[in-house]
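Hypothesis: this fold can be encoded by more than one sequence.
Test: take the structure tokens below, design a sequence, compare later.
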């Protein structure tokens, strides 16, 4: 029997314990990968190629406070801005749903076409959307989910606004980061709310990423000390602001991940301690035959590392397969769009498992090193 076979035979001596240990490591690695992926999705929202050219201005006091529509004339005169449109979140409930997983926004269709440049129309036509005040433009994901088509009606019950909307699908878009949203005429919302005169936010596209900081500063300064001061930020910063409302996601996931790693360490250390304690007599015999301490440590390390590695591969691969094969939007009711288990996260979980496998071998190796041949031979199996 060669050394590899000797190590494998010792590791598989108690198969029930090996199975439970590998399963525990696999589950722990799976939970760790899931937590790190969740943190990534909540703190690093996906960006489209045009996101660096878009900025959003909201009320400086709170995003819930509206802005006066008269600000449009001032914003249009600021150098560097290519297009600007009102962008008001409606937040209605679709049909009889108690929770709708996609957003609805009131926009100016003529102006908006110069802002969302990466999307493309895959059904209907944009001109039809512009011409029909009751029309709307719907993301392809929403159309597929609800089995809709151009010409169908979508009825929304107001939540933030005390009005309901009956919209007709004029166009279907695809190619953006989030192909779920519904865009409708802001004038329809103005009419439903007795003239309006306010908007939720201003959505702008600038000439280049280089002029974005200057435009942001200019927009803020334009309404400084007015009755409706604004806070202008990039599209990414605006998204991150929404995510911050969930609390300190990084601290939460870090705390839970630490507990998972600590539990994983206890499992592997307990397993190796029991396995080596049961074989003190055998290891004493190996010492008597001339095996040195570093060789015995190599045996223990290989066994511990092997169990951790097997569990890590099983857990990481299983987690990747699971999250790659389910419909996450349906599972989370639209809260999460993507849940990408990246190679970096998988590598991180593998490194953690490997390090714990090494750490778990230290205590048993020290015990064996201190053990004399006589004391080892006295041990009762």
């Amino acid at each position: 029997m060669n050394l590899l076979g000797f190590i494998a035979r010792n590791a598989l001596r108690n198969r029930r314990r090996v199975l439970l240990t590998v399963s525990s490591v696999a589950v722990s690695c799976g939970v760790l990968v899931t937590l790190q992926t969740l943190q990534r999705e909540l703190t690093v929202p996906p960006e489209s190629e045009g996101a660096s050219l878009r900025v959003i201005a909201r009320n400086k006091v709170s995003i819930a406070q509206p802005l006066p529509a008269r600000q449009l004339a001032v914003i249009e005169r600021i150098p560097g801005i290519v297009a600007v449109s009102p962008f008001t979140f409606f937040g209605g409930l679709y049909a009889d749903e108690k929770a709708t997983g996609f957003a609805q926004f009131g926009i100016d269709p003529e102006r908006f076409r110069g802002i969302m440049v990466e999307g493309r129309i895959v059904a209907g036509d944009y001109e039809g959307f512009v011409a029909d005040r009751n029309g709307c433009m719907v993301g392809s994901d929403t159309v597929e989910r609800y089995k809709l088509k151009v010409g169908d009606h979508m009825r929304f019950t107001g939540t933030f606004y005390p009005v309901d909307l009956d919209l007709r699908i004029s166009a279907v878009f695809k190619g953006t980061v989030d192909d779920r949203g519904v865009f409708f005429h802001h004038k329809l919302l103005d009419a439903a709310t007795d003239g309006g005169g306010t908007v939720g936010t201003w959505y702008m596209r600038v000439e280049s990423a280089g002029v974005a900081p200057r435009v942001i500063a200019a927009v803020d300064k334009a309404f400084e000390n007015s009755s409706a001061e604004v806070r202008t930020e990039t599209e990414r910063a605006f998204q991150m602001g929404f995510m911050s409302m969930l609390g300190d996601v990084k601290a939460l996931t870090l705390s839970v991940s630490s507990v998972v790693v600590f539990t994983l360490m206890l499992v592997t250390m307990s397993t190796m301690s029991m396995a080596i304690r049961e074989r003190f007599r055998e290891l004493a015999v190996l010492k008597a035959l001339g095996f040195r301490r570093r060789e015995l440590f190599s045996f223990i390390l290989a066994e511990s590392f092997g169990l951790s590695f097997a569990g890590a591969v099983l857990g990481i691969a299983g987690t990747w397969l699971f999250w790659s094969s389910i419909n996450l939007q349906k599972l989370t009711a639209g809260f999460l769009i993507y849940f990408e288990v990246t190679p970096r996260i998988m590598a991180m979980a593998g490194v953690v498992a490997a390090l714990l496998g090494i750490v778990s071998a230290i205590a048993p190796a020290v015990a064996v090193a201190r053990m004399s041949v006589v004391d080892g031979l006295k041990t009762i199996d």
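The chain has two domains: 3-46+247-378, 61-228. The chain is about 50% helix and 15% strand.
Hypothesis status: open.
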